[in-house]
Automatic annotation (TrEMBL):
Database matches in PANTHER family: D-ALANYL-D-ALANINE CARBOXYPEPTIDASE, D-ALANYL-D-ALANINE-CARBOXYPEPTIDASE/ENDOPEPTIDASE AMPH
Higher taxonomy: Bacteria, Pseudomonadati, Bacteroidota, Flavobacteriia, Flavobacteriales
SUPFAM superfamilies the record matches: beta-lactamase/transpeptidase-like
Pfam families: Beta-lactamase
Residues annotated as domain Beta-lactamase-related: 59-344
Gene3D superfamilies: DD-peptidase/beta-lactamase superfamily (3.40.710.10)
Superkingdom of origin organism: Bacteria
Protein name: CubicO group peptidase, beta-lactamase class C family
InterPro entries per UniProt: AmpC-like (IPR050491), Beta-lactam-related (IPR001466), Beta-lactam/transpept-like (IPR012338)
Length: 454
């Protein structure tokens, strides 16, 4: 989603400067609590209203010590054929694929086929700084290699198959954006290259390597390198929402490879991460290296807080699929969420699931809106800004609908929730107007900003 991307970055930077940790689970450091019996009834109520209001399509799984304690699937795998989601539904999990690829690289290191300090010029001599970039740099995004999915032309070819030669040429064309190991910056290019390295050293396809070294040993039933979506195989299509659900195009999986081409489901994902942390895939020493953070980057993994708890995992997004996988080592708790369509923030669902498990309060949305006349919106119209805010927000209306537009972004609709209050639920944006004071309070991702009307 491009809406408010710059705003999200600004909010995150502001909060980090204030030493407030706001990440995937929006955790806050408070007193330790021990897990009580999971509040399944309340969590069921959340999914019931999400399904009734058609706000989310997807699946969730929560497991403790490798034992499933909660699972739910709602919505549709395929709207066109009226195929409902089930626990057998499979989803493209996007960048969660990087955890699988990282584990495979560490297995190769353990087998003495690679080393973390090894540079990549023998594999990719045409990549800028290849004689300086190490396997380690690729794993923790310190290579400096430009992220090819950021290029404007990416959307012109992402549905077409690409060979290794073509992809390496595309990546090499992007050049370096910083000196290797001088800092960290997320790049899908790193993990596409890692996929090809694995193929070269094993002389097998990435699909076969994944199957032989992770899928089969762990007994994963619904995990593999994806291809064209096959509804008959319980694979889901993905959908965006604009007045109605609209089927999205499919990225050709020859492009993301180990950066984002894995297909799986929440139950398999929770089993995978539980086995990863039980050293059933890689050694304790390898796992320690994988989970060691440098500038908040692990090697194919990140750390996320929930209250005083800490978890490791990854999120993913490809086409309109969105996914989250996380593991709390202290409690041996794994949670995975996959979606193929949403207008409700997946992060809020994860927070609810963890709150239900750890006996924390959480609110079930009602999605109630209030009816307003066109003239009721007039006091809110105008341009809002602040010297300490990176962009201006313009509020306009069309008939009885209010719209907000940030500088350089597309306009998006606002739903009235109560007097002087509006929301854009898909992005977690809340706007509270104070017409008499010519002020608008913007809330998103834990950030709160007061803007003044021009």
């Amino acid at each position: 989603m491009t809406i408010f991307r710059a705003l999200n970055q600004f909010i995150n930077q502001t909060l980090m400067k204030n030493k407030i940790v706001i990440t995937l689970f929006l955790g806050f450091l408070i007193s330790t609590s021990h897990a009580q019996k999971m509040n399944i009834a309340k969590l069921d109520s959340l999914f019931q209203i999400l399904e009734t209001k058609d706000k989310f399509m997807g699946s969730i799984a929560v497991s403790k010590n490798g034992i499933l304690v909660y699972s739910k699937s709602i919505g549709m795998d395929d709207i066109e054929s009226n195929k409902k989601a089930s626990n057998f539904s499979k989803y493209r999990v996007g960048s969660i694929s990087k955890m699988f690829t990282s584990a495979l690289i560490f297995k190769a290191i353990e087998e003495k086929k690679l080393s973390l300090k090894q540079t990549i010029e023998t594999f990719f001599p045409n990549i800028e700084n290849a004689n300086k970039i190490t396997i380690s740099n690729l794993l923790n995004h310190r290579s400096g290699i430009y992220n090819f999915t950021n290029a404007p032309e990416y959307m012109n070819y992402n549905t077409q198959p690409k060979s290794e030669k073509e992809m390496v040429e595309i990546i090499a064309k992007g050049k370096s954006i910083f000196e290797p190991n001088s800092k960290a910056d997320y790049s899908n290019s790193n993990y596409v290259l890692l996929s090809y390295i694995l193929e070269k050293i094993y002389k097998k396809s990435f699909k076969t390597i994944l199957n032989d070294k992770i899928v089969k040993p762990l007994g994963l039933k619904n995990t593999y390198l994806g291809g064209k979506i096959n509804i008959q195989n319980n694979e889901s299509n993905s959908y965006s929402f604009s007045e109605k659900w609209i089927k999205e195009t499919e990225t050709d999986m020859s492009i993301p490879m180990g950066a984002g081409a894995v297909v799986s489901n929440p139950q398999d994902l929770t089993l995978f991460i539980q086995k990863l942390f039980a050293n059933a895939l890689i050694t304790k020493n390898s796992l320690k290296q994988m989970t060691t953070l440098q500038e908040n980057y692990g090697m194919g993994i990140f750390q996320y807080p929930f209250y005083d708890k800490k978890s490791f995992g990854h999120t993913g997004g490809i086409d309109e699929f969105r996914s989250t996988l996380s593991y709390f080592p202290e409690d041996k708790l794994a949670v995975a969420l996959t979606s193929n369509g949403k207008t409700y923030d997946n992060n809020d669902i994860i927070i609810a699931a963890l709150s239900a498990y750890y006996n924390k309060p959480f609110t079930i949305p009602t999605f109630k809106t209030i009816a307003l006349k066109s003239e009721d919106l007039d006091p809110y119209l105008g341009e809002y800004s602040d010297a300490g805010f990176p962009m201006k927000i313009t509020i306009t209306k069309e008939n009885t609908k209010l719209f907000a537009q940030a500088t350089g972004q597309s306009a998006f609709p606002l739903e009235p929730t109560e007097k002087d209050s509006f929301e854009f639920i898909m992005a977690g944006i809340k706007l509270e107007f104070k017409p008499n004071e010519k002020q608008m309070i913007l809330k998103q991702g834990g950030g709160k900003f007061a803007l003044t009307k021009k």
